[in-house]
């Protein structure tokens, strides 16, 4: 009898853990509080507020190019714990000759609402449409980690000069299953980001940068994207981890080379 009681208690505890994981999944995937504070931006930076279909608003940060020669606009999609102003500033410093924009995801201050995969995809499309009239040389989407999935989705519905993906994952479902093998995440997950499956149907110049020592997005989850890309222009591996990649001395050159690869005709 005591074995039955123990088994029932263990089953009840597991069910409670599963329920908590289900409720908290949006916070775990989109920890907006970690991205609340951004850097000071240089003169000329603008924050543009755009409306969503359901009455929310999201904010797009824009930094002008330092020269008048038309070049592709770089539209950045940050990782899940990145501040969009910080991403825009990094891109502006690395690519001063390009206009740069980055999206504050839904639910990430100063944007309103709640983040979700579908909300991020929808807002990326609206951001693109706002920028397209000014981007005479086209738009390159640069996605970091989770933002790479947003960039790939955007390419399914809008014309892009290219996509640059940094530490991307092939499937949010499979990535979650890797990190939580003891949970039925494939059944629980409400947010769908299937970047590799989507990329297989796209003819868009693509570049990939991976971190060789990445434990957050391991090689098994980034390799399918390289294999799925129909027009892979560049693949660069850097001996760094997921979070310290951006401070690695090879990263700036890798990102510049990736943008050049997808924009070269």
TrEMBL record:
InterPro entries per UniProt: AB_hydrolase_fold
Superkingdom as given in the UniProt entry: Bacteria
Annotated PANTHER family: ALPHA/BETA HYDROLASE DOMAIN-CONTAINING PROTEIN (PTHR12277)
The name this protein goes by in its record: Alpha/beta hydrolase
Source organism of this protein record: Mesorhizobium mediterraneum
Taxonomic path: Bacteria, Pseudomonadati, Pseudomonadota, Alphaproteobacteria, Hyphomicrobiales
């Amino acid at each position: 009898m005591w074995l039955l009681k123990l088994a029932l208690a263990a089953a009840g505890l597991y069910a409670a853990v599963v329920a908590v994981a289900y409720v908290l999944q949006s916070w775990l995937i989109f920890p907006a509080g970690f991205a609340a504070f951004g850097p000071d931006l240089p003169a000329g930076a603008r924050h543009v507020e755009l409306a969503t279909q359901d009455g929310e608003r999201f904010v797009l940060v824009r930094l002008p190019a330092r020269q008048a020669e038309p070049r592709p606009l770089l539209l950045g999609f940050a990782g899940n714990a990145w501040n969009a102003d910080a991403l825009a500033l990094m891109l502006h410093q690395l690519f001063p000759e390009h206009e740069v924009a980055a999206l504050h995801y839904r639910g990430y201050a100063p944007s309103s609402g709640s983040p979700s995969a579908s909300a991020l995809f929808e807002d990326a499309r609206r951001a693109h449409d706002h920028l397209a009239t000014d981007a005479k040389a086209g738009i390159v989407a640069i996605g970091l980690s989770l933002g790479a999935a947003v960039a790939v989705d955007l390419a399914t519905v809008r014309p892009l000069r290219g996509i640059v993906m940094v530490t991307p994952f092939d499937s949010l479902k499979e990535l979650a299953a890797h990190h939580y093998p003891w949970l039925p995440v494939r059944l629980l997950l409400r947010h769908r980001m299937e970047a590799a499956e989507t990329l297989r149907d796209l003819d868009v110049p693509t570049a990939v940068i991976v971190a060789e020592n990445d434990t957050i997005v391991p090689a098994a989850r980034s390799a399918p994207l390289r294999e799925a890309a129909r027009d892979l222009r560049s693949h660069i591996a850097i001996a760094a981890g997921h979070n310290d990649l951006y401070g690695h001395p090879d990263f700036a050159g890798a990102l510049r080379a990736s943008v050049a690869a997808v924009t070269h005709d």
